[in-house]
Amino acid sequence: MTDVLIIRPENDDVEKTLAVWCDLTLPPGLAAPAVLTVTDLRGAAVTAAAVQSALASGGDIVLYFGHATETTLGLWTTLVDTSTVKCAQGQVMIAIACKAADTFGPSAVAAGALAEYLGFNDILFVYNGNPAVIGYNIADRIRTYLDGGISLRQTGDDIVTDLRDIESLFRDGSMSTHVDAAMIWMGAHINWRGLEVI
Amino acid sequence: MAEPEAEPLTQSQRRELAEVVSYWAERHPRAQDRLFAFGDEGPFSPLDLAEALRSDDGPIARQFYRMAQFALEVVPFGRLVEGFGSTGLATS
pTM, whole model, 2 decimals? Predict the structure, then answer.
């Protein structure tokens, strides 16, 4: 059984779309058999103190859906960085966010604060016009990971496979005439290209 | 760690891409309904993107050109331009 900490700041429309991706992962009110408890830090409750306190209290998996930089989670307000993340208790973190797999994730794993980290080392493209495009596939793979039985690395490989399929579908396949096809396949491409599991 | 940088777009490629994306955005019948975000920039509509690319400056343009330069790993530049041009024509 798994204790999950969700962090979703919802500060702007991008983070609100990412919060929808979170709901696609763990739909409100629906049971996730392998998940024992969910702590959902969202909106105004997402402060640096609250995030660091929640990380320090332990648990198994942390899901972050929001903005980030190479060295921090959070953009306008730094929620946690390469130094303060040392309060974490060896959880697995999945950060659906820009760039933090560049330095933040590897640093946290190297310090032993996080056991493993899945994230993106470059910009993350989000299609706000339909959050399910790209969002559904990522959410579905994370949900499968939460159900247990597969590794985080396999989860990363599966997300890459899905994103490459989306790229092909919109670049050369049946969705290539979609009016936003060029944007979507380019976005899917840069998303899978930047995915890292550490 | 981040992979090595892809080859940057040339100035003429940037100009051509800006032109065709502008065309696509302006011909889109429901352009304001389609919203995107790159990284920390967004959401914005295709018309916002077109405006940013016309000025060839600012974070939206930079993020878009970065995405395009990675896209050129898998398609030739002409195909990328055609992708925007053909959808624009299809909905005009």
Answer: 0.92
